[in-house]
Amino acid sequence: MSRNKQGALIGCGFFADNHMHAWKTLEGAEIGAVCDLDRAKATAMATKFGIARIYDDPAKMFDHENLDFVDVATTVESHLPLVRLASTHAKTVICQKPFAENMKDAHAMVAAAKNAGSNLLIHENFRWQKPFLTMKKLVDDGTIGTPHFAHFSFRHGYDNYVNQPYLAKIDRFAIMDVGLHLFDLARLFMGEVAHLSCTKQSLNPIVQGEDAFTALLNMENGGTCICDCSFYSKFSPEPFPNTAAVIEGDKGTVHLDRWNRLTVHTASGAETSNVDPAVPLWGAKPWHCVQDSVTNFQAHAIDVMHGRTNPRPSGEDNLRTMALALAAYDAAEQASSMNMAQWSED
Ligand SMILES: NC(=O)c1ccc[n+]([C@@H]2O[C@H](COP(=O)([O-])OP(=O)(O)OC[C@H]3O[C@@H](n4cnc5c(N)ncnc54)[C@H](O)[C@@H]3O)[C@@H](O)[C@H]2O)c1
């Protein structure tokens, strides 16, 4: 085995804890430095994970560190300068979603990585969740034939605003936070989108932006896909943070319920299995499916760093997902369908 790739984490907030736990459990890469504008957060992270080098200024960190990879786990407004800087100092840059607030910034990051000869991966972890890895294998194996309809649904009533208070204060919330994940799944299973229409709702009075949306996607291959999300739905037991899904093909259907039970319907009948992943030793319910997917995604990032595979998804691939999220706002606000071949941000 070649030596461990040397990395740094930028952004030591709520979700970065999962990144750090996953890096600790994986072979082939290790984090040797952490950075946060808030030095107390960087210090707390370094202490918790035994990291020797602590920074509160990314530029200073890059002056002092010799890095193979950088893991950017900050919120979206900082991604452009950080990805630009990281690209010139490391061969692999991983950026959390949402990748960017607009297409101009997203394209600028893709160009920066390309010009620097660096691999840009987007931390798009829903496709790395065990239920979706299982469904992808079933679809790729031909178990349900050719898919013609899919539905991805993320609905819950969990109080996200305790851990992520910024979510209640942003103008663009549900589509940019979770829509991106669902659109990535739609593209993964159904291909590219021809037309998109969308409605959005503001349900919880403490939330500034939309906290629910329903999007209808007409796929280039003639398929149909629905993506919907709500942060204000009442279920028992609480399904957060799971995604329900249905994919129908000409030979069968796969159905994932909100509690990670997967039923495969074919001509020979229906079979249900539990695809809920084990809680990682370092993890806790209800986050375990997400935590497991962080480990799966980062294991993939290590394969990319060692030249064993290509980024899934790359920054370049994620441009189309970003475009769907941004077009969804236009579709909802103009109450009309967006032709994705012609849609542009302006
Ligand atoms: N993929 C997922 O399942 C998932 C889940 C939750 C959050 N996220 C994403 O992770 C990102 C971080 O979310 P969070 O909830 O951890 O946010 P957070 O606010 O808790 O943490 C972000 C940290 O980044 C630091 N920071 C900001 N700008 C910086 C800069 N220029 N240099 C250094 N540090 C900087 C902040 O001080 C803060 O400590 C968001 O983009 C969010 O959408 C992804």
UniProtKB/TrEMBL annotation:
Gfo/Idh/MocA-like oxidoreductase N-terminal domain ranges (all copies): 8-119
Q: Which residues form the signal peptide?
A: none
MF GO annotations: nucleotide binding
Q: Pfam families annotated for this entry?
A: GFO_IDH_MocA (PF01408), GFO_IDH_MocA_C3 (PF22725)
What InterPro entries does this protein map onto? Answer: Gfo/Idh/MocA-like_OxRdtase_N (IPR000683), Gfo/Idh/MocA_oxidoreduct (IPR051317), GFO_IDH_MocA-like_dom (IPR055170), NAD(P)-bd_dom_sf (IPR036291)
**PANTHER family, alphabetically?**
CONSERVED EXPRESSED OXIDOREDUCTASE (EUROFUNG) (PTHR43708), OXIDOREDUCTASE (PTHR43708:SF8)
Q: What is this protein called?
A: Predicted dehydrogenase
Species of provenance: Cognatiyoonia koreensis
Q: What is the lineage of its organism?
A: Bacteria, Pseudomonadati, Pseudomonadota, Alphaproteobacteria, Rhodobacterales
